[in-house]
Write a structure and sequence with these properties.
Hydrophobic Seed Protein; 11% strand; Beta Polymerase, domain 2; alpha+beta; seven-stranded mixed sheet; 440 residues
């Protein structure tokens, strides 16, 4: 244990109180994973905790629920009194808590057995509900009644799926059934809490696993009914051997764990369901699905109160994911860089490569990889590094005798196209000569 954690435990013990690390940090230690943080539980009440650590700065993390934050070397350690939860309100949180002197009563209120273990400063494990055995057996099991645990706080549905995916564990049958039967309770949970859990899942190593679990339990239909429609949907194309849902989660697995990129991968073809038409050759066509899809994804993410920054990037990537013609000139690539932004264009090409790989096993993505490499080279051009890249501006054009009006914008647009086609023409003297020659 870190020395500051041991210091807190020992100091509480010296004052006559029981104290343990508890929950996820114990679970991770037993799994051989370095805990990201340490939660501490104690028989001391909040006012007693503050008195014991009067020489340190303390903050009220949630004193009404028994939690005091102790700051040591700029790190906050949360210390919580043993407690028994009162009646839960709105499937979210208890109306009140009752402080307890009993560790088992405190562990009893927790969600899953693997999170209901405590350890003292000597490393002794307290495990009244068999969490260690469930870790060994790779099982997610509720503490007590699964239905009761979920009805207390329905976000435990998402947490069970997240832990199962993170550790590659099996969800015990009774808990699995309770998740399936009670999945609609997620509608009573705030969108922010749901998306917080979901974002952790899809930025993990194997996001498809979570989506498949959501589909199997019925959770997907509750939180993303628009995505549920893609399950079993045939694309009627010799270039797509997967159903639409399987294609989407494959693409998500293939791209790096960036939230915006993973969201774009998951939703990039979501409106194929709305745009399917069958050609005379019997093949499926999805004209304009990227435009409809960008709008639909924006609605979905706004529903979950995702930041505008993330939504804007996801829309940019989806809108341009069909711009993958067999041949693209440097001029077209420069236009693409300007359109999507130099900060997004590499992620766009990662999406395009993954999209190609997830169509057929034998699909060759080398032409997109080669194009990505060319885009990298073009990004080094000075014209690609700034929005206003022309060597002249509107005032320069006015000084040539042109008055205010549309003509200034028309000339600038023409010059931009000229330079995008050939950056060597981005020369002040050449551009002025071009204007005098073509607009006099």
């Amino acid at each position: 244990m870190p020395k500051d954690v041991l210091f807190i435990l020992n100091k509480l013990n010296e004052e006559g109180f029981d104290a343990y690390i508890v929950g996820g940090c114990v679970r991770d230690k037993l799994l051989g994973i370095a805990p990201q943080d340490y939660d501490i539980t104690t028989s001391a009440k909040p006012d007693e905790i503050k008195k014991i650590f009067k020489d340190f700065k303390t903050i009220l993390v949630g004193e009404e629920f028994g939690t005091v934050g102790i700051i040591i070397d700029k790190t906050i350690y949360e210390v919580t009194t043993f407690r028994i939860d009162g009646k839960y309100l709105n499937f979210r949180k208890p109306e009140r808590v009752i402080f307890s002197k009993n560790l088992k009563e405190d562990l009893k209120r927790r969600d899953f057995t693997i999170n209901a273990m405590a350890m003292d400063s000597s490393g002794n494990l307290y495990d009244p509900f068999g969490g260690k055995d469930d870790l060994d057996e790779k099982t997610i099991r509720a503490v007590g009644s699964p239905t009761k645990r979920i009805r207390e706080d329905a976000i435990r549905i998402m947490r069970a799926i997240r832990f199962a995916g993170r550790f590659n564990f099996y969800i015990e049958d009774e808990l699995f059934d309770a998740i399936s039967f009670e999945s609609k309770l997620l509608k009573k949970i705030s969108p922010e809490r749901i998306f917080d859990e979901f974002s952790k899942m899809i930025t993990s190593e194997r996001p498809s696993y979570y989506l498949l679990l959501m589909e199997e339990t019925g959770v997907l239909d509750v939180i993303f009914p628009e995505l549920k429609r893609t399950i079993g949907f045939s694309q009627f194309s010799p270039y797509h051997e997967k159903t639409l849902f399987d294609h989407l989660i494959c693409v998500m697995d293939e791209v790096k764990p960036d939230l915006s990129l993973r969201l774009a991968a998951l939703f990039h073809d979501i409106s194929k369901v709305d745009t399917l038409s069958i050609g005379e050759d019997g093949r499926g066509h999805f004209y304009g699905h990227e435009i409809l899809g960008a709008d639909l994804v924006s609605e979905i993410l706004k529903r979950y109160r995702v930041s505008n920054k993330v939504i804007d990037k996801v829309k940019i990537l989806i809108l341009d994911h069909m711009k993958v013609h067999s041949e693209m000139t440097d001029k077209a690539l420069r236009r693409q860089i300007k359109r999507v932004g130099r900060e997004n264009v590499m992620d766009l090409y990662d999406l395009l490569i993954a999209d190609c790989k997830c169509t057929r096993v034998d699909r060759d993505a080398s032409f997109i990889i080669n194009r990505k490499n060319r885009v990298k080279e073009l990004l080094d051009e000075k014209e690609m590094k700034t929005e206003k890249f022309l060597e002249i501006n509107g005032n320069d054009i006015k000084s040539l005798g042109f008055g205010e009006g549309k003509i200034i914008g028309e000339i600038l647009k023409k010059l931009e196209n000229l330079v995008l086609d050939d950056p060597e023409k981005n020369n002040r003297e050449y551009l002025i000569e071009y204007i005098n020659k073509n607009y006099r």
